[in-house]
Amino acid sequence: KQAEKTVHQKKEQSKTKCRKARRRHINLVVEFNRRQRKNIWLETHIWHAKRFHMIKKWGYCLGDSPTEKCYRACYRAMTKHCLLQDLSYYCCLELTGKENELLKQLARICSIDTGLTFEEASCLSGRYEGSLNLYRADCYPEEMLGPVTFIWKPRDGSENRQLWIWMHPAVKQDILRELKAIFQCSEPEEIYVPEPVTTPIQEEKQMDVVLSLGKKRKKEDEEGEKAVPVKKIIGDGTRDPLQAYYWISQATGIVISDRTMEILRYRLIGPSSHSVLTETLKAASLQTV
Hints:
Residues 3-97 form the Pop1 N-terminal domain. The chain has ten helices and twelve strands. It is of the alpha+beta class.
């Protein structure tokens, strides 16, 4: 009798809900986290997945080619309006420490013969972004690591500076290994994970939130309050969630931090790019304590 009652309830549910609602996953956050175990999604993944053929490269799920013939529309946007590209899969390494020590060691992996370096005055002030090729320490012109772009944080009166270096995920591990070597950075004793990573057992418990009529049941904790929603998986396509994401040099005090997927990166192309930015971004009001 119980089985017949369950089948009858399912039939009633199928009549009241459309096919799209019946096929929708009961907990989309849990399902999305499960599908990101091997290949991380960008913030714009859902938008791209509906309009592009997706490919899995460098540990990410990226949009490869559009499903519709929109090449003319993209070209028109680039030449007359504005076209936005999501480059968040590019990896970002943050270097923090004394400016003199940073420049001294970074000079070993680049050369003035190839163009500008990290010491370029316009880039060192933090006003402009620079680009250059990196090599293994003291090996120029051999053993090239790959091209990177960088930007300094403007000076604030302190001798400590911050430098962000952007690179393709294919060359991230080689460049990171070289940076840790020249700055003599060691692995942290304990790896701190700022957010919990859901396990398969936890996901199965969170999946069991359906009543007999298919309605979501409010999960409660021991105190009777609403449960905290599931957070996104930590890590990125080039780093495991349980691996270290910062390294400290005991000799120089330089800190290398992996900021991949923490700092998003977008590229705007077209004559209307500046106007789009000015209309989208609003300056925050200054607050003095």
